[in-house]
Each structure stands twice: as C-alpha cells, then as structure tokens.
Design goal:
The protein is of the alpha+beta class. It has 13 helices and 17 strands. About 40% of the residues lie in helices and about 20% in strands. The longest helix is centred in the first third of the chain and has 38 residues. The structure holds one RNA strand.
RNA sequence: GGAGGGGUACCCAAGGGGCUGAAGGGGCUGGCUUGGAAAGCUAGUAGUUCGCUAAAACGAAGCGGGAGUUCGAAUCUCCUCCCCUCCGCCA
C-alpha cells in the first residue's frame, strides 16, 4: 500500500512516478484533501473523548461519595452526539481513503526503464543457443498429442477449456521438473521448502495485491467465507508472516514452494488458446523472500540468478528482460522476466518473473522486522519469483529437444528422474 | 455434523460495569549481596497504531475481530474467527 505520509509530503513526485505506469493518478490529490479533513476530525474527536473520559470518571467518584450527578450527565449528553457524528464522518473518510490506496499500485523503482507497454521492456542478456532444426519443428500441442503425453480433448470434457491432462512420460516430466527445481533451490540456493494451502482468504489476497482490483482474475469459492483458489504461491507464502514482527537475525527469509496455481485468465480470451502456455491450472515452483530494505535489491539479483540456474541446468535458451514502467505488475517496484525461447512461437515467452515489492505488500499485510533489539519495528521488503513455471518449462523442453521423428530427448539432468533419455 | 471449554501484555494467569491500561507468577533489564556465581532481596518492564510535534511531552485507540447497550465496557448483548477436549464421519 502506498504510504499516505509519503504522498502527503512528496505529492508531486509520487504522482509523477506512479504515472510512469501510464495511468492518471491526479485523483490522489482529492485523497489528500480527505486525509486532511480526517486528521482534523481526529483531533476534534480526541478532544471530546478526553472530556468525556474525565467527566465519566467523576461520575464514578461522585457515586462512591454519594454526591449528586445530575449536572454532569447533562454535560455529557451533547458531547455524546457530537462524538458519534464525527466518528461516522471519520469512518466514511477512512474507508474511502483506504479503498483508494488499496487500488493504487506500487511506485515504480526510479531506475527502471520508462515505457508504455511490453514492447518497451529492456532485454538485458540472451543466454544459450537458439536451436536450429533441419526439419520443420512441431509445436508442443502437436508433439504432445502425437506422443500421447498431453490430452486436451479429454481435459475439457472433464473440466473446461484451458485444462490439460498429462499422461505417461508427460506427467512424469512435469513431476520430475518439480522435484528437480525444488531440490536445486533447497540444496544449492539455500531456500527452505514449504507446502502451502491452495485456498486463501480475502485478507491474504488483499495484502499481496490481488484484491480489490483484480478479483476477476481469481477463482472465488462460492463459500460465505470469501475464499479463493491460490493464484500463485506468492499469496500464501507472503501472507504466512502477515501481522508479524520478524527478528532482524531471521532475515533474509528464503522460502521455496511448489503450488498449483489457478487463474481465470479473464481478458485473455483468444490468446494462447492452443497448448499449455495459458491454463486455468498450472504448476509453479515459487521463490519467496523477506528481506531488510537495505539489501533487498541484492536479494533480488540473487533470486534472478537462482531462477536462471534452472534454465542453465536444463540447457534451454532464454533471455532476461527488465520490465518497463508501463508493463510493471501492480504490487511491484521492479521486475525481471525470464523468457525462454519457443520454436513454435519463433520467439521468447515468459517462463518466470522475479520481483521486488519493496514495502508495498509489507505495508498492506503489516509485516515488519525489528532492525535491532531496542529499535521500533519497520516494514521489511518482500520479494517473489518463479523458479520456474513448470508447465511452460515442459513446453520449452518438448519444443527445443524435439527430433525429426517426433520424439523428445530428455535433458541430461532429468534422465535419472525420468529413468529414460528419450520420450517417444 | 453434535456436545462442551478457551482466546487478557514476551510467556503463564487473575479479573465478570467506574478505585484496572489491567492483580500475581515466570522471563528479561538494572541494583543490593558475593572472591565470583547460584540462591535470596529489590527496582524497572505495553509493545503497537493513530493524532500533535523538529523531537519529546501530551492525547486517543487498544484484553482474538466486528457491531451494540451504557455517562462509562476486558467485564453485559449479538455476530464472527481461531484453538482445545469428547462423540460422529472420513483420506
């Protein structure tokens, strides 16, 4: 959440920075007007409450002493109505201010590229060689159907479109990748493994920024408790420490979690309708960090490196892209995307996204740390990154490792897990 | 799903309308004692959020969360969440 004090003190800069996202945020000035009024009311209310508290105490005292209290009661009557009327005004203002702030995205980091959309993202580096085929390479949906390791038709019978059934070695490839990724992050990168709930509540969705603005993207359960299917492990992962004050010595906290993610994909009708690039349900290994503000950007760079290591180990060609202001996710101050090369698209497609939310989610979720024993708690920084999207990794392997006869070679590091070196 | 019992500060716990922003104990910090320590004695120990501040002082809120009754609520009423015990069901 945007810090109202920062907005108050540095209004023009904050609005200018927010507007690099390509939206108008001038309405925040009205919010500041509301905020001013709110603070005035607080002062009035508190003055009245102080009076009331003092007078009420007198009543107790008088009664104990057997004195007459009629005069004092009169005094309180007016006071009472004024307090409740002012409090009602205050609540209205606070609700409105909070709602605006919850719908205001994070301030983009000052060094990120300025741009209006994904065409202006900045490619930082390309790693690995794009495969050259001496035959016409197939898309993964054809490879998958021909090898009978992916079944789209039956999945839509069972559920709906944008679901897939993995079969045989397809299923084992997905499972093997999950294991491989988790092990690498735990054993080599020092993350602590978690298994998280697949259902999250409204408070959690709000803290990480999915709500209130992006409710349409989530699967909401028809349960009066207002629960949602996990849209990314970032939600249960970050919210694990919601409302907590962590000790400085615990930081950075590094978690890795495999979860299945569920998304409505509202607004992407007609896009990526074939194959498993864009599904309502997909598997993801997610990296999560809670870091001190002063080194969160070092932690971000390390996290990016950790994700890249997976692609390097799988020997897949990829590039790293720095997301420009106009393409930046709602809760994030800075994001790197990792894009893997896909022959069927003839270009790179996102396979992972590594971001620093700074104190934005921490503020929404009230997650703090105590810098030293005697200091006041301060908001920490939260980071999250894919490590990686498993379904899209399967796609990348299928397409990049395919052979003329329609079979797929198994990457060296997965041969043990798959117990074969070829899928045919 | 049924029947009970709970949620109070770092931890345990008392308190059931005003003298309680909260007894008592543990822990922690300091002092006395000691050659040093333990023990004992003794003092201190509500963090937090908001408002006002240059900062403090000060004020308001705060006894799981929300709403209500009242001049006044940890205490009474209602709703809700979480935890525990027993029964039923179940992977």
């Amino acid at each position: 959440m945007l810090d109202i004090k920062r907005l108050r003190e540095d209004t023009d800069t904050v609005i200018k920075r927010l507007e690099l996202r390509g939206e108008d945020f001038s309405h925040l000035k009205d919010t500041l007007t509301q905020d001013e009024l709110r603070r005035q009311i607080i002062q009035d209310v508190e003055r009245l409450k102080k009076e009331r508290n003092e007078t009420s105490k007198l009543i107790g005292q008088y009664k104990r002493e057997g004195k007459d209290t009629a005069d004092i009661f009169k005094q309180i009557e007016d006071n009472k109505e004024e307090i409740s009327s002012l409090e009602a005004q205050k609540n209205t203002l606070e609700t409105s201010i909070r709602d605006t702030l919850l719908r205001t995205p994070n301030i983009p980091h000052k060094d990120i590229p300025v741009g209006k959309d994904d065409t202006q993202n900045k490619v930082l580096r390309e790693v690995g060689d794009i495969p050259v085929f001496d035959f016409e390479p197939k898309a993964h949906w054809d490879l998958g159907t021909d090898l009978d390791i992916l079944d789209f038709k039956r999945a839509s019978k069972v559920a709906a479109s944008r679901f897939t059934i993995y079969k045989g070695l397809g299923s084992r490839l997905e499972r093997g990748l999950i294991n491989f990724m988790l092990d690498m992050h735990v054993d080599e990168h020092g993350y602590h493994e978690l298994m998280l709930p697949y259902i999250v509540n409204k408070e959690s969705m709000t803290a990480t920024g999915q709500l209130p603005k992006f409710e349409d993207d989530a699967f909401k359960l028809t349960d009066e408790r207002e629960l949602y299917l996990n849209p990314t492990a970032e939600v249960p992962g970050i919210n694990m420490h919601r409302g907590e004050i962590l000790d400085a010595s615990e930081l950075p906290k590094r978690y890795v979690a495999f979860t299945t993610a569920f998304r409505q994909e509202a607004g992407s009708a007609g896009r990526d309708t074939r194959g498993i690039i864009r599904q309502h349900q997909f598997n993801k290994v997610e990296l999560i960090k809670f870091a001190k503000p002063e080194n969160s950007y070092d932690e971000l760079d390390k996290m990016l490196e950790n994700s890249e290591n997976i692609l390097k180990a799988l020997n897949l060609p990829y590039r790293v892209v720095e997301i420009c202001s106009g393409d930046l996710g709602f809760s994030m101050a800075k994001t790197y995307d990792i894009e893997v090369y896909l022959p069927s698209y003839g270009t790179y497609r996102e396979i992972g996204s590594i971001s620093n939310a700074e104190d934005y989610q921490a503020r929404r979720g009230n997650i703090k740390y105590r810098p030293s024993k005697d200091s006041k708690p301060e908001y920490l920084h939260t980071l999250n990154g894919s490590g990686l999207a498993v379904g899209r990794t399967v796609v990348a392997i299928m397409e990049n490792y395919q052979q003329a006869d329609g079979s797929i070679r198994v990457p060296e590091v997965l041969k043990g897990i798959l117990r074969t070196d070829i899928i045919k």
